[in-house]
DNA sequence: TGTGAAATTTAATGGCG
DNA sequence: CGCCATTAAATTTCACA
């Protein structure tokens, strides 16, 4: 199922990506639409599942997590399933993607320091073979493409 | 600089990660704190830069972007800098991380289909050597560790 | 820092072009 | 689909503990 959005919907998404707490009234002012119409469109975006959720970007460095790494994992047999079932045991793993290619999984981990990393690797080794890359910096860009039709509820 | 949060702050962050549009009144109800105190804490989190921004998670599949891939890049000389300077020319690249290890950059790309991928690879090749992994699925988990001190403005 | 109350703004709903 | 008007709820501000 592919849903096409009109310009209003795209503008709303762009605004919400930058500040998801803006009032409907204020969003409406920016895009020249009434409160009620703006609210209805936001609710349509949520109801259609285009907006998965309203969230918050946290700066973990300020909380003492100064080390961000990508750990790629290789597994034998079905150890992959054991690992994903145990993911809750690894609070430092923030995302876990299953991918094609040399590695089975690529995880993003938020860590305090290198001894925290060492500890994590020790806990990963029973499941498979981890390969660690330290994330030096990140450029984050959010973009949505334009279509021209109105979103239906 | 490391900032420590108390239980109220942690609960607020957890709640906002799940629904960043909840009213201060409602958050306050959940954590048993008044509207005004809750609002002040959220504003402190923002002022301290712990909350980078309130955002929205978009389901791109519903917008016709059915293919998500990780593309790792190798570069010669300083082609790496040319590429990052030109990132705006690649609207399908959503994140771009500089990492240590075999590859210089790892990018996440949101694509419509395999011909879109082919087109992207053609545009990447002038900069460096891309290696593509298709993202089959993703498990996303947000967690914050507990400390016990009060956040200061 | 937290609470409670008053003034202002926003959200939610329903009727109408 | 969008606008306007009405009622309910939330935000903001401030005095006080």
Automatic annotation (TrEMBL), chains A, B:
<dbReference type="InterPro" id="IPR036390">
    <property type="entry name" value="WH_DNA-bd_sf"/>
</dbReference>
<dbReference type="InterPro" id="IPR019888">
    <property type="entry name" value="Tscrpt_reg_AsnC-like"/>
</dbReference>
<dbReference type="InterPro" id="IPR019887">
    <property type="entry name" value="Tscrpt_reg_AsnC/Lrp_C"/>
</dbReference>
<dbReference type="InterPro" id="IPR011008">
    <property type="entry name" value="Dimeric_a/b-barrel"/>
</dbReference>
<dbReference type="GO" id="GO:0043200">
    <property type="term" value="P:response to amino acid"/>
</dbReference>
<dbReference type="GO" id="GO:0043565">
    <property type="term" value="F:sequence-specific DNA binding"/>
</dbReference>
<dbReference type="InterPro" id="IPR036388">
    <property type="entry name" value="WH-like_DNA-bd_sf"/>
</dbReference>
<protein>
    <submittedName>
        <fullName>Lrp/AsnC family transcriptional regulator</fullName>
    </submittedName>
</protein>
<dbReference type="InterPro" id="IPR000485">
    <property type="entry name" value="AsnC-type_HTH_dom"/>
</dbReference>
<keyword id="KW-0238">DNA-binding</keyword>
<dbReference type="GO" id="GO:0005829">
    <property type="term" value="C:cytosol"/>
</dbReference>
<feature type="domain" description="HTH asnC-type">
    <location>
        <begin position="5"/>
        <end position="66"/>
    </location>
</feature>
<dbReference type="Pfam" id="PF13412">
    <property type="entry name" value="HTH_24"/>
</dbReference>
<keyword id="KW-0805">Transcription regulation</keyword>
<dbReference type="Pfam" id="PF01037">
    <property type="entry name" value="AsnC_trans_reg"/>
</dbReference>
<keyword id="KW-0804">Transcription</keyword>
